[in-house]
Amino acid sequence: SKHQSLILDNGEDVSDKAYGIILKRVESSLAKKLSLLDACNRYLSRNEVDLSVIIANIGETATLFDLCCKSKGIPSYLIINGLLGVNYSDESKHATHINSYSESIKNNYFKGMDNIVVLGDPRMDAYATVEQKQINRENPTVVIGASGFSPVDLGSYVAIEFDFMFDVLNALKTVKESGANLKIIIKVRPNGYCKQYEKFVSEYFPGLIDEIIATKPMKQVLQSADLYISINSQTLFEASCMGFPVVYYKKDNEVLPPPFDYNSDLVTVSSQSDLVQAFDSYQTDSVIFHDFLNKDVMEKYVGPIDGLNTKRNLDFIFKLLKESRVND
Known about the structure:
Layout: H1 15-46, E1 52-54, H2 60-71, E2 76-79, E3 97-99, H3 103-108, E4 116-117, E5 141-145, H4 156-177, E6 183-187, H5 194-204, E7 211-213, H6 218-222, E8 227-230, H7 235-241, E9 246-249, E10 268-269, H8 272-283, H9 295-302, H10 309-327
Parallel strand pairs: 1-2, 2-3, 3-4, 5-6, 5-8, 6-7, 8-9, 9-10
């Protein structure tokens, strides 16, 4: 049954048209989904599975397979896929055991849940012993980390992303016009749409951007950076681990957990003028950036950065498998 209405700002009710589009999409994909569900069940009937290891509760094949495992009483272990946002979301909260990376995420996002373990992010092992960047403050390369497209929130990409990007680029344009010599790189996420960024920059900021990168790995892009500006992203931690300052430009209105709460060690600004001031502070090596370059500080939010997270997670998986076989 229909519960929601879609009404345009001119008062026109387009709900029936929207539901018609949704139903067509559901009908056209239903056979494929049922076939995939059948494949998951057939796999489980032919193969012994003791544990389902997942990184999210979204995604077509992985979610269907995990649900099939649940229906057969097979436990699951979920390693969260990056920092999580508002605690009223239920994403990544459906598993037998869940690795929250850090105590901060456990206490803020998974508040009240008793199936949480704190074993760190295996991806951060790559940054445990990374060579520290020699920062060029006179002629810096500024990398801007673009937002990600969310397939379950179709308004997220356009509504926030280009508003964020407009502010950041306008501030950097002001910085350049004041005489600063800087190179500007936009790093688009792999699931972003590079052509949209190229069109956006061409229309509003011709000649300002030196490069737009989409497919190159994030770590490789960050190796060329002297300053990194982004949304509430784990890439801020990755950049800090490499030894150069970061700025969180807050354009959203979400009430987010630390360090994205305006009350933590992360340098946070929310206006173009404040971003210009943050750049000036960066060029003078202000102490405001120093705390978030400290691994002990970062570990409060993202978990251990000691190179042992992969081992901790594998040890826990083998422990679960051993317990499963004992119980059998």
